[in-house]
Design goal:
Layout (H helix, E strand, L loop, with lengths): L8 H54 L17 E7 L2 E11 L14 E8 L10 E8 L11 E18 L4 E2 L2 E2 L13 E8 L2 H4 L4 E6 L16
Antiparallel strand pairs: 1-2, 1-7, 2-3, 3-4, 4-5, 5-6, 5-8, 8-9
Length: 231
């Protein structure tokens, strides 16, 4: 008689059962990793617009141009915060500043000083529950002879309920600041600027606003014109 080696039925069942357990464990690990990847991607995608917004805000505020005397403030401009109107922008803006953050290019006639505003605009198809878009508007052609300047809008982030800029005068925070007004007591740049961004949504409205504070170094000692007497 010839002796042949073969697996028995019990051995086959045990092998199939062990392979099934291994496949189930691998499948669970795979789906857990995919879920973790999707959750991490959602967190990163949500944080990217906020990081970009705070980066632009800090850079614009840190490069503020010191205001000058006189009524002609073309390049030096002024600093205004609050619900104000700005030339070339239909919506009320939260802040208007002149900052040296413009990129110099060999084929562009613009300098590094530009006028920057931040305002909220209703997004297309959006509702009050979903919030508005925080837009950064830039004007580069400050010496343009035309009455309406060319304004370039840049979307910072969506889903914003409110944004507020406050200036620190050395004693307290002022929600309104205007260096261009003859009746304003704040004729110079603030010592620091506080930005508060409140996100939309039921959960976000009850939470504390996103807040950043930027100290301002470009502060003139005085806005008074220096006069001398002949001797």
């Amino acid at each position: 008689m010839n002796n042949t080696n073969a697996f028995t039925l019990i051995e086959m069942i045990l092998a199939i059962g062990i392979a099934s357990l291994v496949l189930i464990a691998v499948n669970a690990v795979l789906f857990t990793a995919l879920h973790l990847r999707d959750a991490t991607a959602d967190v990163v995608d949500a944080a990217t617009p906020l990081d970009q917004t705070t980066t632009y805000l800090r850079r614009d505020l840190e490069c503020l141009v010191t205001t000058t005397n006189g009524t002609s403030k073309i390049l030096s401009g002024g600093f205004r915060a609050g619900a104000i109107s700005s030339a070339g922008i239909s919506d009320p803006v939260a802040v208007e500043m002149f900052t040296a953050t413009g990129a110099l290019e060999a084929n562009a006639p613009w300098g590094d000083i530009q006028r920057v505003t931040y305002e909220l605009k209703r997004s297309a198809g959006g509702t009050s529950a979903t919030g508005e878009d925080l837009v950064r508007s830039v004007t580069r052609n400050l010496l343009s002879s035309s009455g309406t300047p060319t304004v370039t809008d840049q979307l910072m982030m969506s889903g914003v309920a409110s944004v507020k800029f406050s200036g620190y005068d050395g004693a307290q925070w002022q929600d309104a600041w205007d260096t261009t007004s003859a009746t304003s007591v704040n004729t110079n740049l603030p010592l620091a600027v506080r930005v508060q961004i409140q996100m939309a949504g039921n959960n976000n409205l009850n939470a504390d606003p996103i807040q950043i504070v930027v100290p301002i170094d470009a502060v003139a000692r005085t806005n008074a014109v220096l006069t001398t007497t002949g001797g």
